[in-house]
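Please fill in the sequence for the structure shown.

STRUCTURE ENCODING:
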């Protein structure tokens, strides 16, 4: 069908060109003109019932969608061609957008006809990953942010984030570290910036982000400020509190222009812009967000903290909870306010469940608002808004009977928008359709003319039936039927059996002869047909006008609907906290302005969540105090639970500061302003960084950004290099954190380097702990209890045996370990070397001659007796040969 449509338009006009040049058909000329305006987008070119792509676009489309790539001759040159039916757009468009492509949709702007040589076409919409609003292309539980970046210099970068599907518009400024943290928090699906910053962006943030460099003039501060003032209809940005963020305003103005360039000009739902205050939330760097698996598990099929604590029942609540988790509060009053609501919900479980039922009905009111502003809503969506407002009204009624003062502010600020609710419910039928093109969604009594037309159309069946019966009696044809087709409308059909057997009435006009019979029309049928068809067309026009009036009326309520959305999202999150706390036996943490963290019988929320039925997580006490136990050095074997202890402390602190209850019997937590973690082993080979380099980068970031209220989690620092290097680094890092004059950050330090136990002897605020095991003759039992004092064993070979390592390998490993322990550096010698205030301050390297190894001892003796001044070159070569043979022989004998 599409190929026929292409041929029809191409043949409708003579090809233009010279004999020596490639001839371009009229259709392709039109395509090329439109494509030239959107060179960076895949152009979906509507031809009849298909969307077609040509050339390079066709190659990309076929590869991404897995559809057939064909070729078509265009003036002697083959042009690649790939297309799909227009009614499949939703399915295919999502794949293109998720593939990172910008897609320009080019529609036919007029109906095809014989008189028109070529159909007028134009781009009606440009869809990019950052400006998606279609429900089918969005994850309803995650925001879809478009990011904008403006470099003043590496220490001053303006940032803006916009979710077009909700209207949320945010702006901030900071250095490279702040920018990277914001990217990790908001996860923009597309980032725009001036073309001049292309290399700068690549250098600092890599190539994993989906970016779109724009013309540099869009990011001129004066132009951007003018864009903002015009959009918000204000004389300055002081009312939004961002007047001093010049770089941030520049980034935000770039977003507004980008919306215009992508044909998104109806954006009334973007009616405010908010400042991101970095000091009002806990600093979680990208490493920490990844290492703690806050919102996404590291391994496929794993579980994140977000999955465990997500008790929300609405998409709005789910999106807000994600943001809360990535930006925990540092404001004690704000935390305690959330806690008070959670506590009330726990005490009033029945009421909480009533609230939840109503919130479920409300659905995604926030994104419905955006669809109204963007004119992408439909009758069913508007009817759902009315239902949502009715549920908000019901929540207020429930609250009047039982609300606690702690969340009275939320309830009082809800607005059921009674005028809008009533108008929508009275105008739209209960089962309103998604499509407006066929009408049938307006209730009776709204428009008198519409009601008359509906009566005519709906009663036409009875009129047609009466005509059929009357004509059957008049003609004597008992099986006479009335049918309809698009060519000549309503007709009377006489089967072949009766067409010659009876007389045809003289007012019947023959229109078609078939093998099965004859078809006739009458003047009465034509008049009725005209009335019915005209009525249907007029009905659709009237209903369309009514729908447009509804849209305009609803648009005036967008700010109030958005305010409702935000309040309902908060309520949803806090009720979810209450439900999770009851389900998993979480306690209310006691928050304070102090610096201590005291956890009694604390548990890891994610590990506990995933444990098999019948098993329980073994809890532990944790006490961190900058004046007493600033650093806990935790040793113990692999798989004993060291890493779990570290992570659960950080996770509990984060949960407490988003207002949630925590997995412990009791908890006292001083406000934490930064959480840093260095756990796991990973590399970044694409940027030339080894596992150890990544480890050192993350550790350096921690040491350069510590504060008094920081919580630091260090797991196996230094294991990516040699033993002596690793011990030296770990020791030095521990001393740096302990002796730092700027701050005394609370630190949990898990390690296999048992030598670090000596730190506690020299530094008063470093305490040794170990995770206990029960060792028998052939096996070890992990008790997973934290106990005071250091450990001297790692039990790595036991763990290898548990993993199924071949017995021959395990037995040989034990022999080699026994030999190495016998020949290792004496512990007293290490103590002597480290017997100063700081091992890190000594610049020494262990010498091979200090080893107890007999080969090394003999080598030392030989070299001490050697007089190099009397040694000839030949004698030196022979001596070296003898020493080499002797070394190899003795080494082999020792191992065997």
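FILLED IN BY: designer on duty
SEQUENCE:
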């Amino acid at each position: 069908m599409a190929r026929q449509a292409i041929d029809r338009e191409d043949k409708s006009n003579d090809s233009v060109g010279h004999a020596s040049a490639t001839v371009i058909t009229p259709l392709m000329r039109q395509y090329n003109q439109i494509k030239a305006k959107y060179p960076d987008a895949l152009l979906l070119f509507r031809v009849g019932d298909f969307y077609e792509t040509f050339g390079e676009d066709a190659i990309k489309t076929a590869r991404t969608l897995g559809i057939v790539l064909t070729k078509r001759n265009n003036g002697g040159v083959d042009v690649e061609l790939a297309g799909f039916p227009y009614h499949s757009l939703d399915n295919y468009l999502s794949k293109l957008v998720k593939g990172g492509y910008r897609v320009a949709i080019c529609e036919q702007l007029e109906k095809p006809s014989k008189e028109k040589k070529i159909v007028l076409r134009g781009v009606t919409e440009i869809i990019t990953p950052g400006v998606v609003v279609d429900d089918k292309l969005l994850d309803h539980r995650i925001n879809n942010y478009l990011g904008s970046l403006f470099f003043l210099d590496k220490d001053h970068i303006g940032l803006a984030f916009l979710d077009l599907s909700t209207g949320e518009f945010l702006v901030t400024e900071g250095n490279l570290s702040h920018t990277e943290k914001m990217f990790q928090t908001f996860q923009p699906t597309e980032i725009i910036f001036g073309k001049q910053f292309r290399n700068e962006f690549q250098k600092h943030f890599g190539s994993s982000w989906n970016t779109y460099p724009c013309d540099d003039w869009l990011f001129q501060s004066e132009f951007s400020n003018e864009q903002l003032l015009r959009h918000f209809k204000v004389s300055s940005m002081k009312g939004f509190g961002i007047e001093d963020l010049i770089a941030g305003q520049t980034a935000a103005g770039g977003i507004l222009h980008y919306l215009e360039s992508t044909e998104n000009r109806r954006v009334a739902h973007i009616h405010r812009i908010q400042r991101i205050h970095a000091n009002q939330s806990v600093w979680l760097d990208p490493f920490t967000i990844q290492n703690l698996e806050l919102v996404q598990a590291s391994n496929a099929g794993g579980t994140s903290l977000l999955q465990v604590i997500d008790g929300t029942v609405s998409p709005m609540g789910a999106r807000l909870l994600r943001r809360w988790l990535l930006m925990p509060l540092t404001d004690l009053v704000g935390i305690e306010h959330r806690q008070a609501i959670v506590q009330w919900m726990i005490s009033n479980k029945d009421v909480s469940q009533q609230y939840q039922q109503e919130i479920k009905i409300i659905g995604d009111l926030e994104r419905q608002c955006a669809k109204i502003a963007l004119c992408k809503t439909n009758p069913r969506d508007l009817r759902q808004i009315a239902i949502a407002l009715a549920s908000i009204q019901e929540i207020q009624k429930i609250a009047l009977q039982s609300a606690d003062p702690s969340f009275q502010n939320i309830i009082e600020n809800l607005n059921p928008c009674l005028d809008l609710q009533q108008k929508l419910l009275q105008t739209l039928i209960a089962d309103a359709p998604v499509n407006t093109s066929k009408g049938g969604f307006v209730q009776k009594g709204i428009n008198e003319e519409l009601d008359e037309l509906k009566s005519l159309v709906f009663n036409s069946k009875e009129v047609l039936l009466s005509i059929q019966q009357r004509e059957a009696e008049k003609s004597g044809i008992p099986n006479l039927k009335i049918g309809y087709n698009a060519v000549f409308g309503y007709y009377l059909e006489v089967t072949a059996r009766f067409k010659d057997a009876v007389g045809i009435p003289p007012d019947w006009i023959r229109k078609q002869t078939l093998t099965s019979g004859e078809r006739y029309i009458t003047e009465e049928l034509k008049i009725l047909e005209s009335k019915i068809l005209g009525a249907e067309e007029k009905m659709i026009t009237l209903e369309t006008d009514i729908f447009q009036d509804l849209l305009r009326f609803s648009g005036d309520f967008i700010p109030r609907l958005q305010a409702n959305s935000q309040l309902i999202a908060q309520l949803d999150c806090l009720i979810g906290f209450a439900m999770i706390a009851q389900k998993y036996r979480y306690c209310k943490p006691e928050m304070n302005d102090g610096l201590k963290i005291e956890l009694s019988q604390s548990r890891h929320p994610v590990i506990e969540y995933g444990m098999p039925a019948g098993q329980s997580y073994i809890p532990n006490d944790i006490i961190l105090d900058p004046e007493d136990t600033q650093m806990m050095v935790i040793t113990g074997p692999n798989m004993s639970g060291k890493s779990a202890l570290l992570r659960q402390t950080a996770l509990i602190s984060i949960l407490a500061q988003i207002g949630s209850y925590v997995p412990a019997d009791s908890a006292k937590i001083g406000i934490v302003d930064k959480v840093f973690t260095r756990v796991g082993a990973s590399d970044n080979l694409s940027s030339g960084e080894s596992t150890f380099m990544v480890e050192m980068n993350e550790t350096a970031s921690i040491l350069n950004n510590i504060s008094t209220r920081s919580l630091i989690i260090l797991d196996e620092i230094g294991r990516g290099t040699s033993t002596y290097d690793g011990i030296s680094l770990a020791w030095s890092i521990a001393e740096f954190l302990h002796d730092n004059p700027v701050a005394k950050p609370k630190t949990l330090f898990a390690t296999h380097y048992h030598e670090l136990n000596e730190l506690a002897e020299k530094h008063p605020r470093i305490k040794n702990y170990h995770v206990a095991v029960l060792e028998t003759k052939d096996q070890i039992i992990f008790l997973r209890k934290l106990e005071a004092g250091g450990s001297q064993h790692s039990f790595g070979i036991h763990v290898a045996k548990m993993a199924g390592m071949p017995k021959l390998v395990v037995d040989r490993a034990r022999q080699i370990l026994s030999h190495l322990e016998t020949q290792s550096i004496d512990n007293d010698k290490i103590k002597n070397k480290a017997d100063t205030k700081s091992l890190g301050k000594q610049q020494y390297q262990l010498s091979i001659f200090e080893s107890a190894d007999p080969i090394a001892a003999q080598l030392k003796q030989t070299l001490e007796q050697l007089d190099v001044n009397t040694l000839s070159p030949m004698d030196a070569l022979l001596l070296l040969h003898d020493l080499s043979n002797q070394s190899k022989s003795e080494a082999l004998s020792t191992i065997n």
